[in-house]
Automatic annotation (TrEMBL):
It comes from Rhinolophus ferrumequinum. InterPro entries: Cadherin, Cadherin-like_dom, Cadherin-like_sf, Cadherin_CS, Cadherin_pro_dom. PANTHER family: CADHERIN-2, CADHERIN-23. Keywords: Calcium, Cell adhesion, Cell junction, Cell membrane, Cleavage on pair of basic residues, Glycoprotein, Membrane, Metal-binding, Repeat, Signal, Transmembrane. The keyword Transmembrane applies. The keyword Thylakoid does not apply. One of its GO terms (biological process) is cell-cell junction assembly. Residues 160-267 form the Cadherin domain. Its main location: other. This is Cadherin-2. The lineage of its organism: Eukaryota, Metazoa, Chordata, Craniata, Vertebrata. It holds the Pfam family Cadherin.
Length: 298
C-alpha cells in the first residue's frame, strides 16, 4: 500500500519536467527558442573573396542571456567567425560552387550543446554594361609616377603629390561592402601587383571597416560609420609585387566622415507663450527664447 502511494511522489519532478517541455514545444509559454533564428544565411558578393573580407553576420538567439557560445566554421581553412558572429574570409580565392556552401556551429562552452546553420555565398552577375558603368563611376587613385635617374635609382617627381580626402557620409544604408575608390599603380601593366591598406580602421582597431581587393585595388567600406565615434580615418596604401617587394612608396589616404542630421530638431513644448509690452513700436525686437533640442551637436 505504501509503495503504491509513494511511487507517484517520486515521479512528480519528472512529470513536472515533461509538462514544462510539452508547454515549451507547443509554444504556449516559451516564446524564445535558443539557436539560430534563420535556417540559412545568404550573401551576394560583388567580387571574388579576398583575405580578411567580412562576408555576413550570423545571429545566435541566447534566450536567458547566460549562455557563452563560441563559433566555428565547417571550413576553417577558408572562413572564420568572430565572437560577434561576423564571418570573415581566411584567405583569398575565387568564389566557386566548392566554397558556396558551408556550416557555422555555435557551441555552449559549459554544456557543450551545439547548434548549426547553413551559409550560402553567391557571386553577383557582372554584365558588360555594369563593368563599363562601374569603371566610369569609381574614382581612381594612382600612385605618383617615378622618374629614372642616370645611375639607375628611382627619383620621385619634385612637385608635391596631394591626394584629396574621401568624404563619406555617416549612417550610410549600403549595400555593403560599399565601393569607394580604386587604388592602382601604372606599373601594373608590366608587373603582377598586390595592393593593401594599413592603419586604424583597416588592420588596426577598429579593424575590418575598410578593406581592399588585393588584385584590383578596389577600396571599400564594410559598415555604416558614426562621426561621433570617429570623424576621420588615416590609411596608407601599399603596392608590392607577387614576391612581396615594394614597388611603390606608400601613399596616405584620408577619409572624412561627413555629419548627417540623423536626429531632427524638436521644440521642447507644443505651445510657447511670449510677452509684448503695451505700446511697442512696429519693428521693435523683443527677445523671447525658444529652446530647440537635437540629438546632433551644432
Amino acid at each position: 500500500m505504501c509503495r503504491i502511494v509513494g511511487a507517484p511522489r517520486t515521479l512528480l519532478p519528472l512529470l513536472a519536467a515533461l509538462l514544462q517541455a510539452s508547454v515549451e514545444a507547443s509554444g504556449g509559454i516559451a516564446l524564445c527558442k535558443t539557436g539560430f533564428p534563420e535556417d540559412v544565411y545568404s550573401a551576394v558578393l560583388s567580387q571574388d573573396v579576398h583575405e580578411g573580407q567580412p562576408l555576413l553576420n550570423v545571429k545566435f538567439s541566447n534566450c536567458n542571456g547566460k549562455r557563452k557560445v563560441q563559433y566555428e566554421s565547417s571550413e576553417p581553412a577558408d572562413f572564420k567567425v568572430d565572437e560577434d558572429g561576423m564571418v570573415y574570409a581566411v584567405r583569398s580565392f575565387p568564389l566557386s560552387s566548392e566554397h558556396a556552401k558551408f556550416l557555422i556551429y555555435a557551441q555552449d562552452k559549459e554544456t557543450q550543446e551545439k547548434w548549426q546553420v547553413a551559409v550560402k555565398l553567391s557571386l553577383k552577375p557582372n554584365l558588360p554594361e555594369d563593368s563599363v558603368k562601374e569603371s566610369q563611376e569609381i574614382e581612381e587613385i594612382v600612385f605618383p609616377r617615378q622618374l629614372m635617374k642616370h645611375n639607375g635609382h628611382l627619383q620621385r617627381q619634385k612637385r608635391d603629390w596631394v591626394i584629396p580626402p574621401i568624404n563619406l557620409p555617416e549612417n550610410s544604408r549600403g549595400p555593403f561592402p560599399q565601393e569607394l575608390v580604386r587604388i592602382r599603380s601604372d606599373r601594373d601593366k608590366n608587373l603582377s601587383l598586390r595592393y593593401s591598406v594599413t592603419g586604424p580602421g583597416a588592420d588596426q582597431p577598429p579593424t575590418g571597416i575598410f578593406i581592399i581587393n588585393p588584385i584590383s585595388g578596389q577600396l571599400s567600406v564594410t559598415k555604416p560609420l558614426d562621426r561621433e565615434l570617429i570623424a576621420r580615418f588615416h590609411l596608407r596604401a601599399h603596392a608590392v609585387d607577387i614576391n612581396g617587394n615594394q614597388v611603390e612608396n606608400p601613399i596616405d589616404i584620408v577619409i572624412n566622415v561627413i555629419d548627417m542630421n540623423d536626429n531632427r530638431p524638436e521644440f521642447l513644448h507644443q505651445v510657447w507663450n511670449g510677452t509684448v509690452p503695451e505700446g511697442s513700436k512696429p519693428g521693435k525686437f523683443e527677445e523671447n527664447n525658444l529652446e530647440i533640442t537635437s540629438g546632433n551637436a551644432v
